[in-house]
Amino acid sequence: MSKVAVVFKIYSNDGQFDTALKNLKEKLNPAGISTDDIGFGIKVIKALFKFEDTETSSSRIEEQIKKLEGVSEVEVYEESLL
Description:
Blueprint lengths: L2 E10 L4 H12 L3 E8 L2 E11 L5 H9 L4 E11 L1
């Protein structure tokens, strides 16, 4: 079985960056997390998830992230087999 690694780029609603970050850590427990300043005071969260290819899919995780309070947009930044 293959393991998959997916990095999501997560944008927060205005003024809710800390809320989005907290909810992501507490509710979905990513394997890794970082933040980037993209300019004009805007920050994005990059969250790494690892899973067995047969267990789940990146779109399922993406939907869970979108439902979190404080999250505005989600996009797959990088996806690869391990």
